[in-house]
Protein: ADP-ribosylglycohydrolase
Amino acid sequence: MDKLQLSQDGAQRLARAGLHDSIVGCLVGSALGDAVGLYTEFLSGDMSAAAYPSRKFVLSPESQATPFRRDSHRGPHRPGEWTDDTDHAMLLLLSCLHNDLKALDPKDFAARLHIWVQFGFLPLDTLPLGLGRTVGAIVRTKAYLDDPEATARRHWTNSKYNAAPNGSLMRTHPLGLVCLGKSLDETFEIAATFSAVTHVDPRCIVSCAIGTALVRGLVLREVCREADIDSMVNAAIHWYAKHRAQVLQVDPERRNEPGLDVSELRQHAKVESLKDLELDDSYKIGYVYKTLGAGLHLLRLTMRDTSNGTLKTRALAFEPLITDLIMLGGDADTNACFAGALVGAYLGYANLPLNWCNGLRHGSWLMGKAEGLCQMLGVADGEYVGSADKETARDGGRGEMPSEADMERKVMVLQAWMAEQEQEAKKRASKPGDNKWFKWKNWS
Structure:
């Protein structure tokens, strides 16, 4: 073998390793952002600072993990757990894996959402904690599985076109990974189709298009500079104009639906500071443009911090940036879930904080699915076949759906654990915290 061939082989191996690192970094980085963001979800910035004055978050080991602020929202959770954000992203990934990446089926994903709302995340036997209002209202509709997009559109119309929450943006990053071989316009269209099973507002559609395409571009090293982010936003705006024109040709009655306010999108897509986004504004905490803007800004900051830095600089970037983001409160887990996907794809898994990775509950399960995806994409050795993995089935490999009694038992176990935690807290403090009980049917 001559030197040229050796050089080519070496370059291919490096490129393959880089793709692998970026793909795993995206999936794990998003889950880390979700898990750490839970600490301050729905708090204001001031409340976050009061609850966690050290601004340090330890996920593992549990005996030394940073304790949650004691309230009903965090009561059912253990440190290092991800929330519904990553559950839904994994449902999307499992749907793609189950079809061996040969078909991307929004209706299959919708069916998995329908199951999750009832039974939780079946591969890990976890409850459906954190169900968002919009997703719950749509997916629980009787006719949802007959036509998910039509159901979502009726909900949007009935809300007088005001509903533009971030529930589809938080789950979109796996699509960017399975679209590596797709064109940019194809990626935009696929993102739009998957968003529309629950979120049809143009702001949600274009946000998912941008987020999905950025993940694809970051992994392929087509997005390397801040100017590339701006170009992607411009490309998505141009694509959406064509997309809407095509839709109106087929269905002219949709002319009454609001279009895309490009100026508002640009205002959120490029900000001077995270504070400009007012992430803890109680009236618009879950607004999709807040999550989009936070993710894009954190990616910009990462690029600035590491563009001329050393390898050590890259390895130290993720934790402080995500911490700065979640300390602003608001829908912190979703904001950090999306931002973590982008920053994780850019930095790669090798540069994620080991102390957080080691504390991520179900992290080994997530790594297994990430490795399986990499093998199917041809960037890692091995012969993983998604359709042969029982956990990718809709029932999570259980063989059947849980019964009513199964769900009640799981809730009772959770309640017993929460009561135990409350008793331990009473021993450590004179004032017991707020601890409300939950019934699984009523979580929303």
Q: What stands out?
A: DSSP finds 18 helices and no strands in the chain. Residues 220 and 444 are 37 Å apart (CA to CA).
